[in-house]
Amino acid sequence: MDIATLLGLVVGLSLVIGAIILGGAVDVFINVPGMMIVIGGTLAAIMVAFPFEEVIQAFVAAFKMFQQRKTKARDVVNIMVKVAEISRREGLLALENVQTENMVLKKSCQLIADNADSQLIHATLAIEINGLRRRHQVAQDVFKRLAALAPSFGMMGTLIGLVQMLTRLDDPKAIGPAMAVALLTTFYGSAMATLIFIPIAAKLKARTLQEQLNLEIIFEGAKSILENNNPRLVYEKLSSFLSPSERGE
C-alpha cells in the first residue's frame, strides 16, 4: 500500500475538518443542495467529457494507486542483475522458467531465452511504453478535468444561491445565512479540486514516469544480457539510471 498518498489525503482532510470544528458551528458547513450541485454536476459533466469506460478506468487506477506500492528503479536494477546471474550460470534458456508477476519482465525473459534480436526487444518494449503512456494519460486527463469542473460547479452553486438570496432582500436577517450557504458550494468545489483531484492527477503522472523508467531499465538490462551476460557489467550499465544515493555513493 502507498502509505504516503493515503497519509497525505487523510492529513489534508483532517486539517480542514479540524479547522472547521475549532471554528465553532460545524452544521453551517453542511448543505445538501450545494453538495448535489458540486458532486452531482461534476460527475455528470465528466461522463459527458469522457467515455464511461475511461472514467471507470481512471477511478480504478486511482484506487490501485493506494493499494500498490511503487516499484523503485533500484529494485528493477537488482532484478535484472539476478536475471543476468541466472543466464550466466544456467544459460539463456533457463530464463523461460523465471517466475514474476511483471508481465513485461516475463516477456523480456522469454525474448532473451529465444535469443531475440535487440531491435525486436526494443520494438516490443516500445509498444509497452506507448501503451502505458496512453492508459495513464487518460486517467490523468480525467482527474485534471475533474479538478477544473469542481470549482466551476461550485461557482454555479454560488450564483444559484445568490439569486435565491436576492429574492429575499425584504428580510435583512435572512441575507447573512443565505450568503453563507451560497459560498459553501464554492468551498466544496475548491476543496475537492485542491485536496483530492489535483493531487491524484499529479501522483498518477509521477507513477507513469516511474513505470516508464522501469520499462527502460528492463529493456537496457535485456539488451545487456544478450550482448554480454556478465552480471557486473549489467549492473554498471543499469546503475546509470539510479541517483547517487540509490547507488550508495
TrEMBL record:
Domain (Motility protein A N-terminal) ranges: 7-88
Transmembrane keyword on record: yes
Entry's localization field: Cell membrane; Membrane
Keywords of this entry: Cell membrane, Flagellar rotation, Membrane, Protein transport, Transmembrane, Transmembrane helix, Transport
TM region(s), chain numbering: 142-166, 178-202
Superkingdom of the organism of origin: Bacteria
A cellular component annotation (GO) from this entry: plasma membrane
Pfam families in the cross-refs: MotA_ExbB, MotA_N
Membrane topology value: Multi-pass membrane protein
A Gene Ontology biological process term: bacterial-type flagellum-dependent swarming motility
InterPro entries: MotA-like, MotA_ExbB_proton_chnl, MotA_N
All copies of domain MotA/TolQ/ExbB proton channel, residue ranges: 99-216
Family: Belongs to the exbB/tolQ family.
PANTHER family on file: CHEMOTAXIS PROTEIN MOTA, MOTILITY PROTEIN A
Name of the protein this chain belongs to: Motility protein A
Annotated organism of origin: Pseudodesulfovibrio senegalensis
